[in-house]
Amino acid sequence: MEAIASIKPETAHAVDTAPVVAPDATYINGSHALMRCLLAEGVETIFGYPGGAIMPVYDALYDYQDQLNHILVRHEQGAGHAAQGYARVTGRAGICLVTSGPGATNLVTAIADALIDSTPLVCIVGQVGKKLLGTDAFQEADVMGVTMPITKWNYQITDANEVPEILAKAFYIAQSGRPGPVLIDMTKSSQLELMTKPFVYERCQSLVSYRPRRIPKQEQVEAAANLINSAKRPYIFAGHGIQIAKAEAELIEFAEKTGIPVATTLLGQSTISTNHPLYVGWLGMHGNYGPNVMTDQADVIIAIGMRFDDRVTGDASKFIKQAKVVHIEIDPSEIDKIIRADAPVIGDAKEVLKALLPLVKPNDHTVWRNEFRKFDAIENETITVPELTNLNGKIRMAEVIDMLSQKTKGEAVLVTDVGQHQMMASRYYQFRRPNSLVTSGGMGTMGFALPAAFGAQVGAPDRQVVAIIGDGCFQMTLQELGTIVQNKQPVKAIILNNNFLGMVRQWQQLFHERRYSFVELQNPDFITIARGFGMDGQTCDQRDNLSDALDTMLAHEGPFLLEVIVEKEENVFPMVPAGASVSQIRLK
Amino acid sequence: MTTYTICIFTENTIGLLNRITIIFTRRRINIESLTVSETERKGISRFTIVIKHESREEVEKLVRQIRKIVEVMAVFGYLNDEIVYNEIALFKISTPLGSKSLDVETINKEYKAWVVYWGLDYVVIEKTGNDTEIFEFFGYLKQYEILEFVRSGRVAVGKTEKGLVEYLPESEWAYYL
């Protein structure tokens, strides 16, 4: 334990009820202690929404507004997704501050999303006073119970003296190992009452029962290296864990030394530049053709920081059966969960790759790599080129993303929602910089993009942030336009409007004989809505105007909403039908 | 279906039982019995959970998911032949005036059970043993009127030379199944 902040007690801030214990008026209350903890952890930004049971914390925050940038969202779910966007681009925990009951339950979707996509969040939630716990008090919900299955850790603070230790634990747990959301349920009484000892903050460095392994065991590394060195047709699956570990450079060095082709998962995209000669594309239900079908040809799979989601494996019982598997993972419970690993390596992706590097032999798998290119040619001919060059009919989603990619030189942070536009964004954006895709992968949360783009922009003020949103998704969290405008964040949002819940419609077309069941939307005038919030925007429905519209958006100083009217019944291909094996991938 | 005994060593915190049982419910695994007590090491609790499952692989995954809980220090999964285990049962037997008299000698010598309480017109008999032994005794007692029967969860210690807490907290992650 290393003490980084030891702050002298000072006069307690006036509280709205008499403190329960006041042994010495020089001690601070729980709310002020919380503020000190956040500062000691280097927190700069809080996404929150006040309410009854968190009032004492907001009262303390009033005194700290010069040091802590609190952003008032419009709905607690927005706070959660904004904190996720912030955490994904910064690598540090995103902070949410909300009230009890509905404030906390509104946060639930974002917490679940953060857990499955390994995003560090510290959610501080108000709770009724200790004496009212369990009495069905106003705005009391069993938030501990509700969030237990969807948090990495949660804790209820009932005593102001607990604040420093619990916050230190919360930050450590959220940000170490496999990152995830942590929730602190803070009773109003603990926010109000005075600590009975001086405030001292010690950052947590380890816990007796939680000791994630960062440095891999040497024998596991050697076993993996032997398998890799003996491989004739090795293949790297690069997952989100590489970006979490900031191991992009190590991955590239490893791939270049060994000559092994690299495919990414959905969340692994932008780990490696799409024009890197070893990059072959991305895996998954709507991933590229070659990377998917070639999984059947590889003899050794090197899976790094990924968890074999069913959207990657298709029918897992038929996935990579012929191959030996090296599984590099920081979370031991992922080993053998879906795919049995022949050489598991538990550790941080960066540390494991550093340890592997001297043990792997230089190689050049040109012949093997070129096999991927044959499939690229097929995919280009049947899907990519027609989608980009067929100038009949309405604008296609592919064209918008392709043009955006060129205009931003592949350097923007792309924040996508969930559905067809998400897959198209992944297919056509040519990522050049790491950490450039923020999307809801595991949970597939519609409404994620707008608040997450806002959070990403706050976390990465120097980068161009562009949200790609479907017309359905946009209407789930559009109230956050207010947050974007109030905070003057130059987020650019593109709605790809096909007046449909496109992905569901696609499934209904392909697998339910075109029985379109509740997927068509009567949409509002999005630009009028944006203007109502004080945000500029324009609609583009002509191919000839698309380039100008994108230029206008990108050149605009503040936030901007661009609505592009796209082809109504476009489908995303390739596609591995749900439950099918990867080899049954469809090109049309 | 094979019986597995899962021993979980944890910090003693509120709500942890809930966090652990969630792992079972989410995978639709029924808990046959559950016992929690503090270990020889202060502040460390030991959960003994008995389940039945047809797939060892699934039980291994379950063990790893439990291990993932922050407050959990170690998890061990055992087959019956790898542990010494027992349960305790209490039988409340009606003994009104004129009823069939209890054969205390058989109860003591044959069934290794003891009368631990004499009420006015009932007795309480305590029997320790594994579930088979307890149900054998139950069968024997059926000739009397059983007013109440209660059985505890299983308690178990491994047959290895080492004490399990020796694996804590410095133990490496390992699969003990």
**What's the CATH topology name of the largest domain in chain B?**
Alpha-Beta Plaits
Mean pLDDT of chain B: 89
The pLDDT mean of chain A sits at: 95
The fraction of residues in strands of chain A falls at 15-25%
In angstroms, what separates the terminal alpha carbons of chain B? 16 Å
**CATH uppermost class of the largest domain in chain A:** Alpha Beta
CATH class of the largest domain in chain B: Alpha Beta
CATH superfamily of the largest domain in chain A: Thiamin diphosphate (ThDP)-binding fold, Pyr/PP domains
The overall number of domains of chain B is: 2
Tell me about the largest β-sheet of chain A: 6 strands, parallel
Which structural class matches the secondary elements of chain B? alpha+beta
Tally of individual domains of chain A:
3
Helix proportion of residues of chain B, in percent?
10-25%
Function (chain B): Catalyzes the conversion of 2 pyruvate molecules into acetolactate in the first common step of the biosynthetic pathway of the branched-amino acids such as leucine, isoleucine, and valine.
Enzyme class (chain B): transferase
InterPro entries (chain B): Acetalactate_synth_ssu (IPR004789), Acetolactate_synth/TF_NikR_C (IPR027271), Acetolactate_synth_ssu_C (IPR019455), ACT-like_dom_sf (IPR045865), ACT_dom (IPR002912), AHAS_ACT (IPR039557), AHAS_small-like_ACT (IPR054480)
Organism (chain B): Spirosoma fluviale
